[in-house]
Structure formats: structure tokens, C-alpha cells
Amino acid sequence: MIKNWLKIAIINYKKNWLSTIINILGLSVGLCVFLLIFIHWQDEKSYEQWIPNKENIYMVEFQVDKDAYNPVVNYPFLINAKIKFPEIENYSVINNWMDYKQKLLADGRSTFTNPIFVTEDFFKVLQFEKLVGSYENIFVDDNSIAISEDIAKQLFGDSYLQSIGKTITTDSDGKKFVVQAIYKLPNKDQKTVFRPGYLIRQPFINDNKEQWTNYSYIGFFKLKPGTDIHQLEAKLSKMQSDHEKISAKKYGWSIDYDTKAWLTNIKDIKLDAKSSGIDKGDKKSLQILLSLSVLLLILSCINLINLKIAQSSQRAKEVGVRKVIGSSKMALIIQFLLEIFLLCLVAYILAFAIVEMILPSYNKFLGKEITLDNASVFIYTGFLLVIFSVISGSIPAIYLSNFKPINTLKGNFARSKQGVWLRNSILTLQLIISSFFIICSLIINTQVNYMMKKDLGFQGDQVFQINFNKTNYIDKNFNVRKFELQKSKIKQFPGVIDITSSAQTMGNGVSSTSGARYVKDSTKSTGAGVGAIDFNYFDFYKIKFVAGRDLNPKLTSDTAKSIVVNEALVKALGWNPKQALGKELSSGMDDKHKRMEIVGVVKDFYYAGVQDKVQPVIFFNYSRNWAKNQMTNLQIKLSGDHINENVETIKKYWETEVEPGYPFNGNFVNKQFAKTYERFQKQQTLFTTLNIVVLVIALLGLFALSSLLIEQKLKDVAIKKTLGADERTIVWDLTKRFLLICVIAVFISIPFGYYAMNEWLKDFAYRIDMPIWPYVLSLFLLLILTFLVVSFKAYRATKINLVKYLKYE
């Protein structure tokens, strides 16, 4: 019986070869897109699964405003939480600054690697496998170090397991550490954001045991099993808020929002951290793409259903005969499901072949190393294949099996109103999905283009930034004269027009913040970025002043207390730019009694990407306080002539004279800032690609469907031509029903598209107003494409041989 069914299936595949190819291609492309996004989703969800007792380890974050979350907390919060709440078994600071690297020296060898700064009980929270040494009391002082197996091999060679007690020196400041333990990192297949080359005690941690307003630490708790997370969050929130009120009273600040503490399980921090977390993934975009890939699968399914229903007239007599000779309805359903399953199986195999071919390019696009060796992917997609086959095959199978033998054998099977209604409904759904994709793609492109064309508030053309490797915020021995010496030397290089520097740089956002309070009114206060700058900074970037003046190196007051602020800070304090001039502020970045006078207000410009709201920032000259040790970069403006040659000259000098043995860390500011767009440009590319795939699949399906339906009407066309109808009238008669369905579909898709895009745009502080034209263009575009596809087949139908279709009439 099954052998007979297979023969019938193959005959029908050959007979309808065009629709068979379209079905297989549509299904395979739909499955391929789904697989690519699904394995990306699985890869992001697989992070930190290697950690022992992971279900009890939580990252703590602060919600500091209605929509603002902070990944860093203060150290006394962690200490007191463990003391006050018995459900907290342990804690650790795990400051994982992924962009920071250090050169280590030992036994005449060196290596360049990244650290994680931790506190005493790190290994009781994050349990790396120990190879040799001891984890007990390892980080109670500033002279102990734990190193990874790979770094141990690089520094001590084959005898690395005997390196306990040996000394390692950091190249930047000559600080010496004693090796206390060697640990093993997770293997490459185990996804993690924690891959430190070495671990040392968090610098200056003892100085901050009472500093409740110093938010500088990424904190993790290890909780006792069975802890009620929501209750603990409430207690932690109250403790932090109570201490913030004490600090506010002490410094004369006002608080209008109680900080809330959130706990996120370590295995979920990659996607579900409330704040930016540690190398956080883009969960919302992944969810959107995964949903759209499911829609694409549904579209492929619709194509399959529609084409099979349209082919029903060719199978109706077969069904009638089989029923007459005793075949049951269930046997017919199983037969047709088997035919659909074979199509889906071929498409499934082809989809995996396509994925394997394009996976290297896909990895390069995402900047990841995803492999197709996860067994769960095959299990999930195999299950999906069965479900997909049943769903897409059930409707045409049930529809075909319900044909009545008496009707089909008489030949009036093609006139079923139910069949026409079902076919039209499914075609409408197909066009709704196509319209939805067009609308979304147009709006996403508009928003991304808006961001890329937005005035950034500064001119970074031909500005090349070099970052020091051998200076950093923990290096007490860094001398600002080193920075000024290199600045003066490089200024003499050919092609160099000017040089400046700043603690916070374009494209990297505001990394240091403090409070800012109006001295005469404590209710006027706000959080503000700390912008230590060189004197020529604003002129260098052509940043405009809206009120007041720039800092002047000839005025002693400008070195000691004068500040420039941006429009965002002025607005946050309830002034206009002119009112702000001469006002005095106090801030947590200096002694609370030290007053800073506003002498200028600059137009808002973007430190971070334009998707984020411009934060209030205080700008002051770096020479006045601790900020002089944070001038760890040079920003060099080059002439337009021989840029590449001049950059190479600077690079060669840097690598041989300034930081020999270190990788050169430099880039153009515009390229650096462009990285803030990358996530949205990738979204734009993915959505555009999905939109093209959807349209191609929809139009191929529409072409095949219209071909089958028009072929069923060739006798009607022959009669109309015989009665004198012209080609234009016949083409219009054959296409108008498809155009009407297209109009209905677009109008149904509009509210869905509006809701989806309105939700997507909520992520942007600076967003376009919802445009009308994408909805109108979607209608016209689909109408034009539908007309072109259907009318092409309709026009060919007008060229038929009349005798062939009327000879029996």
C-alpha cells in the first residue's frame, strides 16, 4: 500500500513539477532562515551553563530611575547584605572589564591578557576548576594572583604546574604578584563571558568599605537553596534606599526615586540582565527575528496549502475512484500527509545543506563562532518538521478526502464554494504577512537612516584616536607628564593639525558619573557624567556654545573651579542656558565643600549612540584633580593629505618608542562612533533580507497559484474570446480578484505593523514620528507586484488555441 502511495506521489510531483520546485524551495528557504536565527538564539541561551551551582548564583543590579538600570553597585551594599540576610551564603565583586588587557612578565617570558578584579570569596561564588595551589584566603591582600592554565603555560613553559610561589610582574607599573593558584577555564564549547587570563584583588577595595555612593562594582551573590528571590530583592532594595537617604541628608542632596535591587540568575545574564550587564546580548531583536522567521515558515506553509488545494481538481477523480473501490477517509488523509511529509523532508535536508554553506559568512556577520553540532538543534527542528508536516498537510488532506465520489465522477468538483473560500482566505493570510514585512522593513530602514544622518553635535572627520595600553585607572604610578610628553612630540609629526584628549571618548558613552547639586537650592540636583577634557577640546571637535564661553588656560579660576556643562544638565536643573551662567554647583567628584562655577553651556553632542538620550555632563580641565590619571588617549586631527601614510608613521613611532611589545590600539573616531550603529545596521540588514525572502516566496507562490487557477479557467477564456472579448478585458477579469484580495490583506496588516513598529521604536530616545508612507507604499508595491505576476500568466492565457478547448463543446 505504501509503495503504491509513493508511486502516486512521484507521478503527481512530476506532473506538477513547477509547483513542486516552488514548494521545496520555499520550504527550504523558510527553514534555513528559521534555523540560522534559532541556532543564534540557542547559542545566546547556552552561556554560563558550565557553572557549578549556577541556580543559586545571582548578579545584582540597581534600578535608579523608572527606565534606568545600573550594572554596578557599591561595595558596602554587598558586605552588609551578607551580614544582614542569612539567605545570602556569600558574595564577590567580579569586575570583568572585557576591553582592558595587561602585559605580564615572568621567567624572561611575557604575555598580553585580560584580568578580572575580584574580592576574597570569588572562588566560592564562581568555581573555576583548580589545577594546583590553594583557593583559601587567596585574595585577602593585593599581592596574590591566580592565573589560568593557558597563561601559566605561556609564562612558565612545561613546568607551569610547579609555578606556585613564583613572581609575576605587571609591565605597566612594575607591581609584583605571587602565584597562589592555577585554574582551568571552561573549554571553547562552553559559552561564557568569564575568561580571565588572571585574577587579582580589586584595587583600593578597602578604601570603599563605607562608600555607599561609589557605584563601581559588578556584584554577585551566592544564595542558599530555596531562597525567595522576590522577598530578598525587596529587603535589598530597602537597605540600599535607606542608606541613600542617609547620604542625601549628609551631602544636602534630594532623592526623588527609591533605588530598587534586582537579582538575575547567572545563567540568564547574557539575555535577561536588566541593565547592560556583562557583554549582554540583544534579546528583544532576537525575539523579533525569531518571530519573523516563524512567520516566514507560516508563509511557506501557506504556499504549500494553497497550491495543494488549487491542485485538488487534478486529484478529485482519483479520490472519487479510490472511495468507490473502498478506500477509507483516514487512509486518504494518511496518504496525502505522507506526500506532504516527503516534500518537507527534502526541504529539511536541503535547508541544513544551505545552512552549512552560509554559516561561515553568517558567523562573520554576527561576530560569533556558532557551529551546527548541537544535538538539541536537530531534535527541536526534527520535531518541528513533524509538526509542520502535519499542520501544512492536514488542511489539503482533509479537504481532498471530503470530496464526494458522485460529484467528482460527474466532473463538477471545481465549483466548490468552500474550496474557493478556503483558498482565498489562505491567499489573504499570505499577503497579510508579506505586507507586514514590507511595512516593518521600510520603517526600520527609515529609523536607522534617521540615526545615521542625525547631527552628532561634533565633527570627528579625520580624527585618529590612540589609546595607551600601559596606563589605566588602577595605575597609581601613571604620571600625566607621560601623556603630555607624547602629545607634544606627536604634534610635530607631518600631517598633524591638532591634538586633544578626554577621559570619556566619542562612541564609548559616559563611563564615569557623579551627582551635581545647585549650591543655593538642594532640590535642584541630577546625576551627571564626569567629562575631564583638554583646554582645546570643544574647538577641536567644533562643538558649539549656546551660552557663555570656553575654558581659558590663562585664567587661574578655569583651572581651579570653572566648568562647562551641556544643555541636558541645564535642562535637568530647570534652567535655560543663560540662566545657568554663573551658577555654582557641588559634586561628589570633588570635596563636598568645593564649588564649581558654570562659565559656559555647550550644545548637546553624543558620547554614545544616537539611540540613547544625551546625559547631563560636567566638563572641566583634567589638570585640577584625580582626572589627570584618566587621560589615557590621544585624539589627533590629521590633514586630508596622505592620511594613511601619516597614520602609519604615528603607528610605527608608537610601537617602537612609546609602547614596544604591545598591540597598537588606535582607530578613527568616526569608525569608533560607527560601532554604536552596528546593532541597528545588522537589524536593518536582517530585516531587509527577510523582507526580500518573504516577497520572493510569496510571489513564487502567487505565480504558481495563479497559474493553476487560470489553467482551470482556460475554457472560460476560450468562450469569451469566441464571443468577441478583447485581451485587456480578459486579463482584467482574471486578475481583479487577486487585486481585491491584496487590498483587503494590506488593510488587515496595517494595525499589526503599526503595533509591532511602535513597540520597536520605544527603544530609541530619538526616534522618527510614525510615518504614513510605508503603509501606503506597501499597498501600492503589493498591488503592482501582484498585478505583474498574475497578469503575466493571464496574458499568456489569452494566446491559447481556441479549437483545443472548444472542440468538444
Automatic annotation (TrEMBL):
Primary subcellular site in the record, as a coarse category: membrane
GO cellular component: a single term = plasma membrane
Q: Name one GO molecular function term.
A: transmembrane transporter activity
Q: 4Fe-4S among the record's keywords?
A: no
Q: Report membrane topology.
A: Multi-pass membrane protein
Record's keyword terms, sorted: Cell membrane, Membrane, Transmembrane, Transmembrane helix
InterPro entries referenced in this protein's UniProt entry, alphabetically:
ABC3_permease_C, MacB_PCD, Macrolide_Exporter_MacB
**MacB-like periplasmic core domain: from which residue to which, for each copy?**
20-237, 431-638
Q: Which residues form the ABC3 transporter permease C-terminal domain?
A: 291-404, 691-801
Tell me where it resides. Cell membrane
Q: Which residues cross the membrane?
A: 21-41, 288-309, 330-355, 375-400, 421-444, 686-710, 738-757, 772-795
What name goes with this protein?
Answer: ABC transporter permease
Please tell me the species this chain comes from: Epilithonimonas hispanica
